[in-house]
## 1
Amino acid sequence: MTCFDEKRRLFVLGATTLVVGCFGAQSGDDSTNDDAGDEDGGDESTSGDCTQTAGTYVGDVTSFAQGTWTLTGQIIVAQDVDGLYAYTAICTHAGCVVDAPASNGRTLCPCHGSQFDGNGAVLRGPAASPLRHFAVALCDGGVYVDTTTTVSATARTPPS
């Protein structure tokens, strides 16, 4: 399987696992998607039928300790003092997948050398745009990332 085929497979896998429901409002979310969140104001950490959670399961909440960044497929999942967040690992310059983040969260695009900080902001070009952030939801201790819902770079989901 070529690198391109693997990227396409991961994209299709992520796109086809999207289902609706069990998705709560996020702290600090100024999403450009008016449909983000529950209409009933539900809590994103509710337990119940997690098959109805919007997004792709990326691991248990305990897998993402505060102060860490984890490359999961084409998504980087991190946690800071305010909570969990996720952003794309696809460089905004030419669409290459960035390297796994270093211990300080910085990541490098292997194609043309763009560098991003631990929140996806550009530190060095040629990329001119930051990495897009996605909605994060919790259900029964699992972390789900909804790559169809773009949120503010400051949006966080508390881990509890």
Note: The chain has one domain: 3-151.
## 2
Amino acid sequence: MKSEELSGCTGFEWDDGNADKNWQRHGVSRAECEQVFFNRPLVVADDPSHSQTERRYYALGQTDQNRRLFVVFTIRGELVRVISARDMSRAERSICDEKEAAEVSE
């Protein structure tokens, strides 16, 4: 993903079904999903295996309360549309830890 794509976003768009699903399945609120995009470290990458109808991305990041989340999203115009969110797996936490260590050493 090009950083300009995300930096050009001005807000979030929510599908009620996805927001409810994230809460019911994983206990992740809309606010927590949004916080991930404003905190560091933030790892964002393309998700080509799930991009059949529109380009999808995933983000590894943390909430204001340091909850570490995996968030799948797309960009529609200037809005981030969250598709799903859950707690990070052990492997995803390792990726995020490596990114954070690299940022600290810069």
Note: Residues 3-105 form a domain with the Nuclear Transport Factor 2; Chain: A, fold (CATH 3.10.450.530).
## 3
Amino acid sequence: MTKRILLFGWAVAALGGGQLNGDARREAMKKLDFLVGKWTGEATVTKTPGPSLKVSETQEVEFKNDGTMLTIESKGDGFEALATISYNAAKSSYLYNAVRDGEQVSAEFQLMPRGFAWRGALGAMVASSAMRLDEKGEWLETTQQAIGSAPPQTTFEVKLRRAALFDGKWITTVSCEASRGALGYSFRFESEVKDGKFLGLHGTEGEPSSLKIEGKISEDGSATLYAAGRTGGKEFVPGRDTPRGTEYNYTIDAHFRDNKGTGKRIEGRACALVFERE
């Protein structure tokens, strides 16, 4: 498969003469904040002659350079891409370049409501692309190429959805202090966050010595998680008179940031939780 490498706006005009104003550049770049985040989905690559090929693709978009540049890092089956978009305050226009198979193209770039478009020459070929967010908030992008007077041919189609920031596999550690004659304990188990929803299970659900934790993580990393379990040995249960396999429930106040998270049990004995992304 031909590698697809696109570089959005690497050029940053030279400073001088007061023509570029940092505040103006930052304000202009804020109009692109709808792109920021992690996106995952599928791309369709069409190469003539030959059948179309579907590949997975992820894009991570974030601001850099004190908010004056937007970077787009793309990865997929058989390709990687790095992209940037910046703003030329002197010309009141966005800066965009593209690189593919070692060739660089300077392209016209247009910002549109909930999207953008670019068009530029790549050797003897003219490439263009149009991107927009649909009503579901999905990233839809179509890239076309044309050689000479030939009609444009669609070569790349992308459909991505914004991924929750904390999606992935996590190791959860639950540690509870000794209480009312009961011994303290600690155990670890694998959990998963998918579409922002946390789910972890220690042991076998419904059986003694089991614990299930689930809940929704907000974009700011805060979460209220709910734990439901069944007791194990009496020596670990406050009072030591609770039958093995007795149901219990509690709420967890949790906070996630990057690859780590912490939580504490709200009701009952003091328990602390630690979350570590794998």
Note: The mean pLDDT is 87.
